[in-house]
Amino acid sequence: MSLMTHLECGLCGTEQDADRLWNLCPECGKPLLARYDLETARLVLTREEIANRGANLWRYRELLPVRDARHILCLGEGWTPLVHAERLGQAVGFDHLYIKDEGLNPTASFKARGLGVAMSRALELGVKAVSIPSAGNAAGAMCAYASLAGIVGHVFMPQDVPPLFVAECRALGAEVTVVDGLITDCGRVAAEGVRDFGRFDVSTLKEPYRIEGKKTMGYELAEQMEWMLPDVIIYPTGGGTGLIGMWKAFDEMEQLGWIGPERPRMVTVQSDGCAPMVRAFHEGQEFATPWQGAKTIADGLRVPAAVGDFLILRALHESKGTAVSVPDSDMLEAANLIGRTQGIFVCPEGGATLTAFQHLRSQGWIGDDETAILFNTGSGLKYAHLWA
Ligand SMILES: *Cc1c(COP(=O)(O)O)cnc(C)c1O
């Protein structure tokens, strides 16, 4: 099963025992990352072996943290389609445009990847109750796997969250607390429950395994593209878990001998109303300053301060990538263009990737013969209120 060896802090490098329950690094308060025995993996695991496995993210199980297969909580997460968007490509004058459609995951967003893996590992380590402050997709995904695990899920949502998200969590059997305030207030209330009742906090990058679930997007991209990575990956970035995860996956795959040293240029997309990573990237900062008065219709991008900011910025710089912010109004227009050319009803975050693509094309930053991937991170169905 898992070839995980230990956890290592992404900033100070301190190592921890992976078979204990951890949140952030006890030395410096930054995210802990899972490390694996990739030398052994290189000997025992081949690309051909993987190709014959099930169509979900557990096909990469040696490179995931769950030690005993009985603890795997699977609703079919991962192995989403990589669509060659030919009609969209014609509309925007570009041949090699692809959409990785994460809206087809359980609970209709890619949050299912991270929480599927994190909750499986929480179950394995004996967690009885989990907690998350969330205004959307992360909550639904957590509740789905909590229910499957028989773990009590506590969700703290701001009052202005669309009713569908509350309904989803309740239907999935979680304890939902609607907090009179902003997501930051939800964080405060959730923290009290963590402190007083010992609930395990599964906020992104505040525990080591959601990123492991999301890194499988990098493995899948490579496998679905016959082990030739694209030139450009455009990723709608909130906490950055998927972007950091894919960047980690590429390193692991090179050590496994599955890909060479070439890397895609990673692009972060945020909203003009909340763009802390874009600002920090262009100012050449190592850490991002929290964004004041964050406001955007794209819930997944409303993250004023990301715990993994330095890891996002590192990946952008190392990959020779960039960061772009786009207006909310353009996201919906772009979503409609994807909808009427490709038949995919994307979330606003997915629309944002197309807007960023068009911007980078007009600047000549993406060449005619290159290959670009847009990440549609969730289904538009959950955001239908924005089209009403
Ligand atoms: C959470 C979320 C994002 C941001 O994901 P990160 O990996 O945390 O940056 C983007 N889009 C949607 C739909 C989301 O739910």
Write up this protein.
The chain is of the alpha/beta class and 388 residues long. It has helices spanning 38-44, 47-51, 86-92, 111-124, 137-149, 163-171, 183-197, 210-224, 241-255, 276-282, 309-318, 328-342, 348-362, and strands at 4-9, 15-16, 32-36, 82-84, 97-101, 129-133, 152-158, 175-179, 200-201, 232-236, 265-271, 322-326, 372-376. The strands form three sheets. Strands 4-5-13-10-11-12 form a six-stranded mixed sheet, with helices on both faces. A four-stranded parallel sheet has the order 8-7-6-9, with helices on both faces. Strand 1 (4-9) and strand 2 form a beta hairpin. The model has no long low-confidence stretch (mean pLDDT 97). It binds pyridoxal-5'-phosphate.
List the helices and strands and how they pair.
Elements: E1 4-9, E2 15-16, E3 32-36, H1 38-44, H2 47-51, E4 82-84, H3 86-92, E5 97-101, H4 111-124, E6 129-133, H5 137-149, E7 152-158, H6 163-171, E8 175-179, H7 183-197, E9 200-201, H8 210-224, E10 232-236, H9 241-255, E11 265-271, H10 276-282, H11 309-318, E12 322-326, H12 328-342, H13 348-362, E13 372-376
Parallel strand pairs: 5-13, 6-7, 6-9, 7-8, 10-11, 10-13, 11-12
Antiparallel strand pairs: 1-2, 1-3, 4-5
Helix pairs in contact: 3-12, 4-5, 4-8, 5-6, 8-9, 12-13
The structure holds pyridoxal-5'-phosphate (PLP).
Provide a brief overview of the structure.
With 388 residues, this protein is α/β, with parallel strands linked by helices. 38% of the residues lie in helices and 16% in strands.
Keywords:
38% helix, 13 strands, alpha/beta, single chain, 16% strand, 6-stranded mixed sheet, 388 residues, binds pyridoxal-5'-phosphate, globular, 4-stranded parallel sheet
